[in-house]
Design a protein that fits this description.
Strand content: under 5%
Number of helices: 8
Radius of gyration: 26 Å
Helix content: 40-55%
Structural class: mainly alpha
Number of domains: 1
Oligomer: single chain
């Protein structure tokens, strides 16, 4: 019984101490504004390194031309292509999007060779000798990962 009494007192003391940190007339909105960090970031595509933007562009163009899959809407695609360089020099680091095949760890595990690689067909391990079929054998990994982006007419024909 004594232990429960001590725990209740500690709980009440903690609540009183925490409530004492807030000003008496400070609203919840003011508290949230105090916690908000304004970073003055430039637009997303400007924050990417040039190599990352080129990589993303090549992947998107290949998906559109070879597979018939548009993963980025036209407005965002234009922003990707025409984004200005970041004037402050800040850049996003590491993997910059949710594309699982952008992460080198997963592209290695799935044996995916990105379209941005020069001489891509030389890195592909395939039983086929035709370079187009070799590339398609790795493009199938992209199709499986991005199946949701395929137009219904193409997906039904797979």
């Amino acid at each position: 019984m004594f232990v429960i009494y001590i725990l209740v007192l500690l709980f009440l003391f903690t609540i009183r101490k925490l409530s004492g940190r807030c000003k008496a007339n400070q609203s919840v909105k003011d508290l949230v504004e105090d916690l908000t960090v304004v970073e003055a970031l430039e637009p997303f595509y400007s924050m990417l390194k040039t190599k990352d933007r080129e990589f993303w562009f090549r992947e998107e163009v290949t998906c559109r031309e070879r597979i018939g899959m548009k993963r980025i809407n036209p407005r965002n695609f234009l922003q990707l292509v025409f984004a200005e360089h970041n004037k402050k020099g800040n850049r996003l680091r590491s993997v910059h999007n949710y594309d699982i095949l952008t992460n080198p760890t997963y592209s290695d595990k799935f044996h995916y060779v990105p379209c941005a690689y020069e001489g891509r067909e030389q890195y592909i391990i395939s039983e086929f000798s035709d370079p187009w079929i070799q590339q398609y054998s790795t493009d199938i990994v992209r199709v499986v990962c991005d199946l949701a982006y395929l137009p219904k007419s193409i997906a039904l024909n797979l």
